[in-house]
Amino acid sequence: MEKYVFTDSVGYLTTTISRILKQKLQARFNKIGVNITPEQWRLLVLIANEEEMNQSRLAELQHKDRAAIKRLIDHLEAKKLVCRKSGLDSRAYIISLSQEGKKVVQIFTNASKETVNEALSCFTYDEKKTLNLLLNKLLKNIS
């Protein structure tokens, strides 16, 4: 029987890479001086790309439950980075970026790109494209 090497497993590798990237990104964010987490930043980017979005859609895109998304949005609203308004259904809220939120997205997008570019610097252009394709294929398969 072939020995199972846990550190070679997809779960171990993706979790470890994700954790390290998150730490590096948080360190870069901390240098900028705005108190925001990578998780909060991801929501800001999703909202920025659509201009506004309801909480349910954010939860779906982030593979998180609505309560977790609500808590994240509460934090972003307290930081005055997003605005929440009632949608067609009084229980559903539409989220959009504030002016400050738009500025933060621009600044943090650059920081994120730098972090990812550093991490992927060991790959050729074709390897980066293949990695992205394979990771998206895996995500689609397990979603």
Report what the structure shows.
With 143 residues, the chain is mainly α. The protein is built from 6 helices and 3 strands, in the order ααβααββαα. It has one domain: Orthogonal Bundle (Arc Repressor Mutant, subunit A), CATH 1.10.10.10. It has helices at residues 10-32, 38-50, 55-62, 66-78, 99-119, 125-142; strands at 52-54, 82-86, 93-97. Strands 1-3-2 form a 3-stranded antiparallel beta sheet. β2 (82-86) and β3 (93-97) form a beta hairpin. The radius of gyration is 18 Å and the shape is globular. The mean pLDDT is 91. It comes from Aureibaculum marinum. Pfam families: MarR (PF01047). InterPro entries: HTH_MarR-typ, MarR/SlyA-like, WH-like_DNA-bd_sf, WH_DNA-bd_sf. Residues 7-140 form the HTH marR-type domain.
Average pLDDT across residues?
91
Number of helices: 6
What is the percentage of strand-forming residues?
Answer: 5-15%
Q: Class in CATH?
A: Mainly Alpha
Helical content stands at 55-70%
Number of domains: 1
| End-to-end C-alpha gap | 31 Å
Low-confidence stretches: none
> Would you tell me the structural class of the helices and strands?
mainly alpha
- State Rg: 18 Å
- Tell me the series of helices and strands, N- to C-terminal: HHEHHEEHH
Find the count of extended strands (DSSP E, 2+ residues).
3
Briefly characterize the structure.
The chain is mainly alpha-helical. It is built from six helices and three strands; from the N terminus they run ααβααββαα. A three-stranded antiparallel β-sheet has the order 1-3-2.
